[in-house]
Amino acid sequence: MKKFYVIGKRTPRIDAMDQVTGHARYLPDLERPRLLYGAIVRSPIPHGRILHIDTSRAKRVTGVKTVITSEDIPDTRLGFQVGLANKRPLTSDKVRYIGDEIAAVAAESEEAAREACSLIDAELEALPAVFDPESALKPGAPLIHENNPGNVSGDVHRAFGDVEEGFSGSDNVVEATYRTSAVAHCCMETRGALAEFDAQGRLTLWSTTQLPHVLREVVSFVLRFPIGKIRVCKAHIGGGFGSRASMDPLDCICVFLAQKTGRPVRLIKARSEELVSDRIRYPMIITLKTGVTSDGRLMARQATILTDGGAYNEQGLAVTGRAGSKVAHLYRVPHAKVDAKVVFTNKVWGGAFRGFGDPQITFAIESQMDEIAEELGIDPLQLRLLNANQQGDVTVGGARLTSCGFTECLKRSAALSGWKEKRGKSKPRGIGMAGLFHTGAGSVTAHGGAFSSAFIKVEYDGSVDLMTGVPDAGQGSDTVLAQIAAEELGVHVDQVRVHAGDTAITPSTLGVRGSRETFMAGNAVKMAALQAKMELIKRAASILNVEEEKLDSAEGKIYVKSNPRRFVTVAQAAAKPMYDYARNFPMGVPISASACYTDPVSEWPDKATGYGNISAAWIFGAQVAEVEVDTETGQVTVLNVVSAHDVGKAINPMAIEGQLEGGIAQGVGMALTESVMWEKGNVLTQQLADYKLPTALDVPKITTILVETNDPEGPFGAKGVGEAGIIPTAPAIANAIYDAVGVRIRELPMTPDKILIALRKKGRL
Amino acid sequence: MKKVRFEINGEIVHLDVETHWTLLQVLRRTLHLTGTRSGCEMGDCGACTVILNGRACNSCLVLAVEADGGSIVTIEGLARSGELHPIQRAFVEHGAIQCGFCTPGMVMAAKAFLDKNPNPTEDEVRRGLAGNICRCTGYAKIIEALLAVSRAMKNTGQEGAG
Fold first, then answer.
1. Is residue B64 over pLDDT 90?
2. Model pTM?
3. What is the fold, at CATH topology level, of the domain defined by B86-155?
């Protein structure tokens, strides 16, 4: 096996010095000469017709440079999927949720901008509103979009095999309904943008986006402005988790304000504004039915899903479809069927959020696995082992499992957590388990998801510039990609400079989405690095006067394999072009490489059935949570979590552990405390004091186990794991609560009131 | 406008501030010490934590005039002549940073905490950092970093991390 110099090492983030000293510049730290400050006026009512907007008082505020409404902008819609987009950046006819954008201001100071906002008089005619998807579907419910009768945004139907046959061959059928909540991403940096036009009319947009190239397309489409005149780039990004892979009107509004004033404009959401108006995890109502033989083999699974889409389209159908497909993937099941609807309501709309529907559906599937185990009298671990997906499987939904360590994850998490010793004992403590099945290479289905590109340039001092379209929002892709480039080229990590997420200098790439960066961008970087290495070796061969095949590179040197003490440094091989003339190198030709990786494995799903292998690799994992339930108060304390994950190959174990630990912490929040709460469409959780994020006191001790399966197509065998941690946490905790006190909570978050009510009901029975 | 005098990161500064300006606003806007982050402006997240007269505080909850005459340490003042403070070094080495937005506040809270309690248990560390939210790391590596600093201090017989 090849020796790795960089891969597999616990490498600190390459930007850690900037971050830990305060030097890192985030969007709010960017200054431009003559900078103006933007602010947005939002609807105070959940549903209404806009009769008139009077901006005259606002315009008279000292320092105000412009006030815009829908009349000042093109009649276009924004959204991740252009065909579904139905949100005007500033709404014109109707407001559809409390927080809907109706006007915007740019002023010399934040204070002036805010004052002007408070002086905009919007005359609105209130309409009846509807706040939950079940009511929205009822006949006579208020209609939110005139083009969507019945408030249905869209349907998803998937049918694999024949569920009727599967159920009729089952000995037991278990059915229940599970509900998940509206979780807010709560990136520590709120969403922001800074837009500036130059004298040639070209736009530079700094944004907190995870998808610079997609945002460039959206801005071009919404502003009716040529793509060649738009540069989207980033500052340091303070978190993403999918929120920045979803569209928000803020970027386009910022650009409109800059266009109107001819001056740079910075627009940043306040925390309460973000909690009212930014994307959330789509809440789902999932009715799940599973058929099983008496010895525990899954025979059929059927789900109906009702997704609360909120006021506008973003990625509700995609997220719901992805959740639905797991019904056919997670554990071996020969027949599966899904019927889902995404429904509009007068609330803020959802978007991508770490796991892309899988945390929701996995809560249902993995809760139900324990319910089945109980009914059959089988240990939940044994039931999972009996049905676990295996390498070489093709699921009934078409996922091809080229590497799969699911069984090992189940066994090792159970062993390390003391499953056997703790299960069913020492009440009110309990232990619970859940598995996961997720994309490990993103998905082909969105914006060129099947490819990724990279540029590499080797400088004459041996240092390397790596250009990637993938921005690091905290997940660590800059460091992992630098490691991949360094390993392949044979240089040290600290010789690699990463230039990421700038449409002016990086090749077009989808960005940060679906755990795709390590696999897709990693493969592109590896290809480009290999090209550059071959050129270095060619030059080194000429200097050393040996054949190219006899050379290899590592740790900054290009050496003769049979005699490593004969070498030239990478710097010598890449030597300054003006010196190269004497050595007969083409003068002035720098070493550069560009590569596009197209994965040969994934395929578009069948339009009618959804069948297909949409990701080049799949990841697996198993999590065991131990809890203690206070039966007086209903309070659940998570004592510890053991989580084993199939990561393919750990390029940076420290970074992977960090991704998993962070995901699990978010999973604890989703399980126990996190939910955006509304009263008649008004968000009650407008501050972090009310929206309960886990603190250091709430997150338990976490032990992670990395299982290496070496995916045949992954770079050095690696797969993406950015989303994995959060996916099984809530059901593992739900199953642990059941083990502790015998109540099955099927609605998230599992707050003390729900536990107490369930305990009381159980006491009565 | 009111005249105030601070010692910031060892330097004396004289400023004219509006009475409604917070210390956070003065640090970021007037002094361009942007390492102190604004996460919520309500005292909920801890991203704006600085050390004022030896105690960690949310600079968004302190009016600049209240800090008049005070001594303030921000993240920019922690490394001495290019040498990282041991807490900073431990954050880097233990992977206690992801997006990094909470990091300066977390480091300042950690410093104030370890100065008072140089030999904490894990539970005490968790309590000490409970006012600082991190959405990325799940706190595991932050706690690990702090316990490592504490152990190293004990081994070298250092009282407080300087």
1. yes
2. 0.97
3. DNA polymerase; domain 1 (1.10.150)
